[in-house]
TrEMBL record:
The keyword Transmembrane does not apply. Belongs to the metallophosphoesterase superfamily. YfcE family. This is Phosphoesterase. The keyword DNA-binding does not apply. PANTHER family: VACUOLAR SORTING PROTEIN VPS29 (PTHR11124). Transmembrane segments: none annotated. Keywords: Hydrolase, Metal-binding. Its cofactor is a divalent metal cation. Its EC number is 3.1.4.-.
Length: 183
């Protein structure tokens, strides 16, 4: 199964447009949103093209193909605009050989790992910093932020294809980080 991941859109319409264009080209079955979809939050500057209502409209066009979790900047009011559920603090995807635990990163994350088995994947956003690596027995994966990257990184998104998780630069498709999840 091919999956595309995006996190920390924070209401940026240009970032949303780019993600949706890449999603359409990717052949991915699902677009996984790891939280902070519409609002920028009090600690972030307004992202380029801040237009939360328009972001909601564009994402709603793909509602049946989106799996999402709630970020620390998401609220019940946001859910009123979106036609796919975003209020779950975590979800799990079951792959043939492992589990992918989806969360935003503010409740569960690299410093508070949920109970996972060897080889499982912890997929999170929140930090806006891309990660694709094995830490002990668990694979950590953060696609970075498509709108407000931090740590000197480019805006980025993630892909799972043929048991490889990749973080990819949004604008030039350069691979930033990559890890295999083969058993």
């Amino acid at each position: 199964m091919k999956l595309m991941f995006a996190s920390d859109i924070h209401g940026s319409l240009p970032a949303t447009e780019r993600v949706l264009a890449l999603f359409a080209q990717s052949g991915a079955r699902w677009l996984v949103l790891l939280g902070d979809v519409l609002n920028h939050g009090p600690r972030n500057a307004l992202p380029e093209g801040y237009a939360p209502a328009q972001v909601a409209e564009r994402l709603n066009e793909q509602a049946s193909r989106i799996i999402a979790v709630r970020g620390n900047c998401d609220s019940e009011v946001d859910q009123m605009l979106l036609h796919f559920p975003i209020t779950a603090p975590w979800q799990q995807l079951l792959l043939p050989e492992r589990r992918v635990f989806l969360t935003h990163g503010h409740l569960f994350g690299p410093d508070d790992v949920p109970p996972l088995e060897e080889g499982d994947v912890l997929a999170y956003g929140h930090t806006h910093i891309p990660v694709a690596e094995k830490r002990g027995a668990i694979v950590h994966f953060n696609p970075g932020s498509v709108s407000i990257p931090k740590g000197g990184f480019a805006p980025s998104y993630g892909m799972l294809e043929e048991n490889v998780l990749s973080v990819i630069a949004l604008n030039d498709q350069r691979v930033i980080a990559q890890v295999s999840i083969n058993p």
